[in-house]
Amino acid sequence: MYDVFIKTHFSAGHHLRNYPGNCEKPHGHNWNVQVTVRASELDELGMGIDFRTLKEAVKKIMDDLDHRDLNEHPAFLHINPSSENIAAYIYNALEKNLSCQRYRLYAVMVGETDSTGVIYRGTSQA
């Protein structure tokens, strides 16, 4: 098995509805994101997945989340844009485009800071 990953980021504001503390107030983060694809075998070029393919798929999602109020994003109108929900959203948005016979999306890590974060592996891997 090969775990192929990229690291990226986006900047966005949010607030956690009904949170008993400061996070209920609007604030922002420079969210760190790591997307990992697990490959069971290599292609004819010796790659599990081309980094370019992975970067292009992830960039579309990052561009959609970057520099916006996540509470106003359609995915978070009825759920809190917590790190957990953001990681699940990114995973679900990428899963179809990053899965084939040779590889599949394995995990999405979302960090609010350099020392705190969440790793989501999808419901089929729970």
Rg over C-alpha atoms, rounded to the nearest angstrom: 15 Å
Strand content: 25-35%
CATH fold label: Tetrahydropterin Synthase, Chain A
Mean pLDDT: 95
Explain what this protein looks like in three dimensions.
The protein is 22% helix and 31% strand. It is elongated. It has two helices and four strands; from the N terminus they run E-E-H-H-E-E. By secondary structure, the protein is an alpha+beta fold.
What can be said about this structure in brief?
The chain has 126 residues and is α+β, with helices and mostly antiparallel strands.
What structural keywords apply?
126 residues, alpha+beta, Tetrahydropterin Synthase, Chain A, 4-stranded antiparallel sheet, 2 helices, 22% helix
Which SSEs are present, and which pair or pack?
Elements: E1 2-14, E2 27-39, H1 51-65, H2 83-95, E3 103-111, E4 117-120
Antiparallel strand pairs: 1-2, 2-3, 3-4
